[in-house]
Amino acid sequence: MTTPEQDWRTPEVRRAEAELDASMDAMEEVLRSAQELQDSLRPAEEPVASEEDARAIEREAAKPDAPAELRALQRKVEAGDLSWRDVLEGRAYADPDVRAALEPNLSRMGTTYQLFQEGHTLDEVVEAHRQSQRRNDDDDDGGENIVLRHDSW
């Protein structure tokens, strides 16, 4: 039933309003579903790094050829400013030295994730990384040119 202030609306306008209402309801349902999915994918607990994980990164930082950023983190750990577990579990990400040590690998990890999302197998992704590394060793352009081509499998 229409009220006098709605009498101006033509059947087309009413139909468009009804379609808009239905679209909004559908969008709200999609958003609810997406939120439920996101909530289900969250880990139940904070990630926990094992002592072995912490020792492994400590060993890497102690190597003479360790990157300078990793050695800077080692100095902060030795000074008691943070722990390797803080680094591994993400609690220390606000620290600029932690970000400097981790961010160069984020792009490569994102590319790897994307390749898996596209349906590539582990062997294909590993081989693509090897091919990319060989190309980077040859032309030293930064290490982010992972290309998955049939001839690189």
What does this structure look like?
This protein is mostly helical. The chain has six helices and no strands. The protein has helices at residues 11-41, 51-62, 68-79, 84-88, 96-117, 122-139. The longest helix is centred in the first third of the chain and has 31 residues, at 11-41. It starts with 10 loop residues before the first helix and ends in a 14-residue tail after the last helix.
How does the overall form come out from the CA principal axes?
elongated
| Helix percentage | 55-70%
Biggest β-sheet description: none
Poorly predicted sequence stretches spanning 5 or more consecutive residues: 141-153
Rg, Å, rounded: 26 Å
**How do the helices and strands follow one another from N- to C-terminus?**
HHHHHH
Terminal Cα separation, in Å? 66 Å
Strand content: under 5%
What structural category arises from helix and sheet content? mainly alpha
Average pLDDT over all residues: 80
Secondary structure tally, helices: 6
Q: Tell me the number of strands.
A: 0
Please give the structural blueprint:
Layout: H1 11-41, H2 51-62, H3 68-79, H4 84-88, H5 96-117, H6 122-139
Helix pairs in contact: 2-3, 3-5
Defining traits:
single chain; 153 residues; mainly alpha; elongated; disordered C terminus
Q: Care to give the gist of this entry?
A:
The chain is 65% helix and 0% strand.
